[in-house]
Specification:
alpha/beta; globular; Dihydrofolate Reductase, subunit A; 276 residues
Length: 276
């Protein structure tokens, strides 16, 4: 892996002649980065509060032609480096927010504690692993799955005001924490309220892994602070969804490029939202 942007000072022309003696210390060198290096590169801002009261970043992968999945899953677009970054982003987060469809399709399991992040998480007062927060208006979820029966940190289900009481009780009976976001009669979950509700629980370093519909809703609500987008050197064509699949935003959200890493043709970009 090597850093393409921002270009570190040690790669300037004035130091090029000494690169052979310093290559082991140079992050532009094409090598596997240690987890600590990746964790530093992707660290949340401190304090991690956007205008919503928390900092919400998304992690998504796309093919060259814009597909967010192949045959319904994102795994065919992934790589070893993508999975390392996936693990690092989880290791830094308080909570991982995911839509119910994605949780079902990808077979979500509880996040696990990793020794590599234990000291860093303890210093920030975080539990050993992030909570998984599943967004579902209907609570049409299988509460017998390990996501609910085996979590190190209780799974959170976020729903709307009209969720059936028996589904709420089933969630609580499985050990999940039920959070309500949105009081409208439609029963839809208010995505802006999702961020606020999680912040009120103390989860201010948020990571969403989609899917495309939920991510589009976060963007439309104006609460997406950062997008970590991996671009795979693959093309699928077809009619797969893009990483955001929802109504057109009234005004485009503007982002600025924060960093670019590369490994084996995969680009790992990070864009920070420009708050107006």
């Amino acid at each position: 892996m090597r850093r393409l942007f921002p270009v570190p000072a040690e790669t300037s022309a004035s130091t090029a002649e000494t690169s052979a003696s310093t290559s082991a210390e140079t992050v532009t060198e094409d090598r596997e980065w240690a987890l600590d290096e990746l964790a530093d590169a992707y660290a949340y801002p401190e304090p991690p509060h956007g205008p919503s009261g928390a900092f919400l970043r998304a992690n998504m992968v796309s093919s060259l032609d814009g597909a967010a999945h192949h045959d319904g899953r994102s795994k065919p677009l992934s790589s070893d480096a993508d999975m390392r970054i996936f693990g690092v982003l989880r290791g830094l987060a308080d909570a991982v927010v995911v839509g119910a469809e994605t949780a079902r399709r990808e077979g979500y399991r509880p996040a696990r504690a990793r020794e590599a992040f234990a000291e860093r998480r303890a210093a920030l007062g975080q539990p050993p692993a992030p909570a998984i927060a599943v967004v579902s208006a209907s609570l049409d979820l299988d509460f017998s799955q390990p996501l609910f029966t085996e979590p190190l940190v209780p799974t959170i289900v976020i729903t709307g005001a009209t969720a059936a009481q028996e589904r709420i009780e089933a969630a609580r009976g499985a050990g999940a924490e039920v959070v309500f976001a949105g009081a409208g009669p439609s029963g839809r979950v208010d995505t802006a309220a999702v961020v606020t509700a999680l912040a009120e629980l103390g989860h201010t370093r948020l990571l969403t892994e989609g899917g495309p519909t939920l991510l589009a809703e976060f963007a439309a609500a104006g609460v997406l602070d950062e997008l970590c987008l991996a671009v795979a050197p693959l093309a699928f064509a077809g009619d797969a969804k893009r990483i955001m699949n929802g109504p057109v935003l009234g005004e485009p959200e503007r982002f600025t490029l924060a960093s670019v890493l590369e490994e084996a043709g995969f680009l790992f970009t990070r864009y920070r939202r420009i708050h107006q």
